[in-house]
Design brief:
about 120 residues; mainly alpha
Length: about 120
């Protein structure tokens, strides 16, 4: 999530006057992110851990990032409209929240497992 936020920020500061190239890059990042989220979910199901983890973790590890990636792709498609910048901001903020939350969740899980 953090690397996508960085890549999206770099796309936002490209010195290009044509919106098609940044739009294409955002669509590509968004679609790749959706595919990655699907892969994470399928690995969770195949590994049997999807049933053992809380709904909250399933939502934050797969569904929230997938929604954010879809929003990024949609903003790339509509990049020349006023709504696109708001959608882009929402997508990036969702990825930041998911990244921070998931990093905190993993850290506390590791610390708690170590103490047992």
């Amino acid at each position: 999530a953090f690397s996508v936020v960085l890549a999206t920020s770099l796309i936002g500061v490209l010195p290009i006057s044509d919106w098609r190239i940044p739009g294409f890059l955002l669509v590509a990042i968004g679609l790749l992110g959706v595919l990655y989220s699907w892969r994470v979910w399928s690995r969770m199901v195949q590994g049997g851990i999807a049933k053992s983890i809380d709904l909250e973790d399933r939502v934050w590890y797969t569904m929230v990032p997938a929604a954010a990636y879809l929003i990024l792709a949609a903003s790339g498609i509509t990049l020349d409209t006023p709504v696109a910048s708001a959608a882009l901001a929402v997508g990036v903020c969702l990825l930041l929240l998911a990244g921070i939350r998931n990093a905190w969740d993993m850290t506390t899980w590791i610390v708690l497992r170590r103490e047992q």
